[in-house]
């Protein structure tokens, strides 16, 4: 990836055009190999949204040291991100790798004990918004901490998933501990990178692509180790992703 040629794009956001140039693979590639380019585009759009929010008087509460959302929320990641995170953990030096894997294993064990593992792996269907909300409430009651949170900071900050980049609030940080019950003011980011990514991901086992909580990323990647989502033409896939980025 370091030697991949840069791809330069212009993104027409509401009220502002931004240019992004970042290395991106050419030819066949796994979808997780496209993530660094996608994250660069997402960051550019987020910077515009934050600038516009500040101009209109909103202050972003999120800052290093505040990790309320990393300690309870399900943090949905796309299939490509799950595979990318699994590869990242595999590449960690020991004994750090073992520590991080143990945190993932502990979270999986808690989800199994609570009867939530099958729900969030979509082995049992979620029947409508009310059931989805109940599942999210039960998940948050477990207080699962993201395995990448260390000393109250994200240890994979540059490679954190779409949802971690996009979840920025202007309300008091304490409210993020229970966003289903408390009035959290989330910044409106004008791009939908995870949705556009899901649209690129082929069905697996007859099921449409879906997100899983970050703590299930290793379990998801292990289950689908033989079928990581791929592209035959990385640049064409990125063009499709860019087409789906702005809500229609
Ligand atoms: S990946 Fe980083 S930002 Fe996202 S939940 Fe984990 S620690 Fe928090």
Order of helical and strand elements: EEEHEHHHHEEHHEHEH
- What percent strand? 5-15%
Cα distance spanning the termini: 31 Å
The percent range for helix content is 25-40%
Quaternary structure classification: single chain
Compute the gyration radius: what is it?
A: 18 Å
Quantity of strands, as a count: 8
Which consecutive residue ranges, at least 5 long each, have pLDDT under 50?
none
Mean pLDDT across residues: 92
For the largest sheet, list the strands in their spatial order.
Answer: 1-2
Structural class: alpha+beta
Overall number of domains? 1
Q: What profile does the largest beta sheet have? A: 2 strands, antiparallel
Q: What ligands does this structure carry? A: iron/sulfur cluster
Number of helices: 9
Tell me the overall shape.
globular
């Amino acid at each position: 990836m370091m030697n991949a040629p840069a791809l330069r794009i212009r993104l027409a956001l509401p009220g502002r055009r931004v240019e992004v140039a970042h290395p991106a693979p050419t030819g066949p590639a796994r979808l997780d190999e496209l993530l660094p380019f996608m994250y660069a585009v997402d960051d550019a759009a987020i910077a515009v949204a934050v600038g516009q929010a500040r101009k209109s008087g909103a202050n972003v509460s999120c800052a290093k040291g505040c990790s309320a959302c990393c300690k309870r929320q399900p943090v949905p990641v796309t299939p490509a991100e799950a595979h990318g995170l699994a590869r990242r953990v595999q590449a960690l030096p020991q004994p750090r790798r073992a520590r991080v894997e143990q945190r993932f294993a502990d979270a999986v064990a808690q989800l199994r004990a609570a009867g939530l593992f099958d729900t969030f792996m979509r082995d049992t269907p979620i029947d409508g918004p009310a059931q989805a909300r109940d599942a999210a409430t039960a998940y948050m009651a477990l207080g699962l901490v993201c395995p990448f949170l260390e000393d109250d900071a994200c240890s994979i900050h540059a490679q954190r998933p779409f949802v971690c980049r996009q979840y920025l609030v202007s309300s008091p940080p304490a409210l993020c501990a229970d966003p289903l019950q408390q009035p959290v003011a989330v910044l409106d980011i004008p791009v939908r990178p995870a949705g556009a990514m899901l649209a690129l991901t082929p069905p697996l086992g007859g099921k449409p692509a879906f997100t899983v909580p970050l703590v299930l990323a290793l379990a998801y990647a292990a289950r689908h180790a033989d079928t990581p989502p791929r592209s035959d033409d990385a640049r064409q896939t990125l063009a499709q992703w860019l087409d789906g980025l702005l809500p229609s």
